[in-house]
Amino acid sequence: MASDTDASSGSRGGLFCAGGRFKGGTDPIMDKFNESISFDKRMWSEDIDGSIAYSKAIVDVDIITEEEGKMLQEGLEKVRAEWAAGTFEIKPGDEDIHTANERRLTEIIGPIGGKLHTGRSRNDQVATDTRLWTVKAERDILKDMGTLISAGAEYAKTHIDILMSGYTHLQPAQPIRFSHWVCSHLAPLMRDAQRLQEMIPRANICPLGCGALAGNAFGVNREFLASELGFDGVTINSLDATCDRDFVVEFLMWSALLCTHLSQFAEDVIITNLLKGVTIDNAYATGSSLMPQKKNPDALEILRGKAGIALGRAVGVTATLKGLPRAYNKDLQEDKIPLFEAVDTVKDCLAIATGVLVTMKPNPDMLKKALCPEMLATDLADYLVRKGVPFRETHHISGACVRFAEEQNTSIDMLTLEELQKIDSRFQEDVIKVWDYEVSVERKCSTGGTSKQSVIKQIEILSCFANSL
After folding, report:
1. Is 184 designated active site?
2. pTM surpassing 0.85?
3. Tens-digit pLDDT profile for residues 141-161
4. Where are the alpha helices (DSSP H) in 113-229?
């Protein structure tokens, strides 16, 4: 007959075995349902960093001797080496990355390993690991964004002289520079990078030393822990610190907005590619299993599709948090997979967007072909404004010219001076200068506009910002 300390079904593992609070084992389904080692093992390095720092902190308050601290630190470095080499063996009972690392540490150095967790809880431990991992990921993403924005700015500079049709409501609106259009997709990415920069200080705050919820009973120096781990400071309330996942939600919401901007870029390129204004490189297209002629912009379509999933992650985790009482609850385990997936998705999307952009070939002739004289109707109105006519009146006059040209089944730039003067006598011979796309573009010389010098200034701003990341 089995003793009371034997597991009747399932295992509680070496750190939470039967014979303490619990009698018998867990349901094997519960083991699978409860574990997080299958995904939080990604934080193995951060978990070891936190444990090394904590071992130093408990040496400082005389919980363990300096010799014991040295043993813990050397043992943890051996655990790190196994993870780095890919030789770390996950065993049954390794519920999460914390228990796995501590179990292996104890195997290496013996019972002294059991002293590491003194005064510490997995509640403040996982909060620490997740913050460390997230901040590192955010800083890496900023570098990727710098690469995309820098490459995009250089691409815009290379194609500074190409003109294209600008659209509103997917209708031809006004002529613009192709480079201006490129910069219009880099500008929101610059804002995204700025938002990410603002988020990092809020995430980079140390919760270690908060214990399970009430604080650390041994007076560890939390400011020392923060400094040791590269945090900017410490959390101010232990109850809040162990359950705060604002930084996760912020990143998920941020990733949804970034993916939205990349989706808009993708849609614009898909349409421009359809109109033969640009050619997508073969490296980012696929064929059809049936139709030999097809060249599908799959990379862009997947970019577009990622935005909806990104938003779903943000909403899902926020919904999980909204009903939680203080302090830590196991629901919070569900933040890891969306977080990890979001980081992976963002990095992949940035890499794909960079590749698509820098290899995309504009077709100046086809882009110019999409220009039409009716796009210069506003310039026609502005012509009369410069002669002192109120804009509301000139808008009406220009609209009448457009209607007359349509009725005559001709293009507005083909109307004779006599025909224009029948609509308004203030038209003069110099009106012919209106029908020049380059002149129209160059008139838009205000900051942020589509004139050459305005676009060059935008490129300089984007390049300078990218280099600062």
Report:
1. no
2. yes
3. 999 999 999 999 999 999 999
4. 122-158, 178-203, 222-229
